[in-house]
Specification:
about 220 residues, alpha/beta, Rossmann fold, seven-stranded parallel beta sheet, 9 helices, globular
């Protein structure tokens, strides 16, 4: 069965889909057979895939799946792949918990700001519920849309006080991410020599290391 990574946040607007797409694209380009499972009703990953098909880009496939049937159907859908990235829906605790229970690792994005750090605690609460059924379940937090402001530093400080691992690798606030998504690409293809591409590669490496640790 594919290694399964859930990208999860009960709060919308934290860049969850962008992280899922760029992680999957980076792994795909590195030779891992990757698939994106889109359970978010907003369908950002599906729209991205449609654009990728339009420009005939060789990227990871995207499949839509109802979060309610995820645990039942995931193994069948991901058969033949090395890595499955689940883009979880926001504000849907039951579906998010199901995705966590089906995963080897949960990646929880958060953007700088007190409200966003506080909202992360809701996602961690769902994670704790899932751990009652799978004690070995592990999770990491990634700071997204980070910059050099004091706010980002304060966010990292606040995150360090939570009972969850925070990755050293951060995703910065770069125009290249939005441009790549609109083009149906990941930044590793859209701007392969850019700082954005390099940080996504570092992030992907850290995520795979976290999966191995969880295993």
């Amino acid at each position: 069965m594919a290694l399964t990574i859930a990208v999860s946040s009960l709060k919308g607007g934290v860049g969850k889909s962008t992280i899922a797409l760029n992680l999957a694209t980076c792994l795909h380009r590195a030779g891992h057979r990757s698939i994106v499972v889109d359970t978010d009703p907003q369908g950002t990953c599906r729209m991205w895939a449609a654009k990728a098909a339009e420009v005939e880009h060789d990227g990871p496939p995207v499949v839509a799946m109802d979060g309610k049937t995820l645990r039942r159907d995931l193994e069948r859908i991901t058969k033949g792949f090395d890595v499955a990235i689940i883009d979880c829906p926001p504000r849907m605790g039951a579906e998010t918990r199901a995705a966590m229970l089906a995963s080897d690792l949960v990646v929880m994005p958060v953007i700088p700001g007190a409200a966003d750090v506080w909202a992360l605690q809701e996602t961690i609460a769902v994670l704790d519920e899932a751990k009652q059924y799978r004690d070995e379940l592990r999770a990491v937090v990634v700071l997204n849309r980070a910059d050099r402001t004091t706010l980002a530093k304060l966010a990292l400080q606040a995150l360090s006080e939570l009972d969850v691992r925070v990755l050293d690798e951060v995703i910065k606030n770069r125009v290249a991410y939005g441009e790549a998504t609109l083009a149906g690409l990941g930044v590793v293809d859209y701007a392969p020599e850019s700082d954005a591409a390099l940080e996504v590669k570092r992030f992907a490496k850290a995520v795979l290391a976290a999966v191995r640790t969880a295993a």
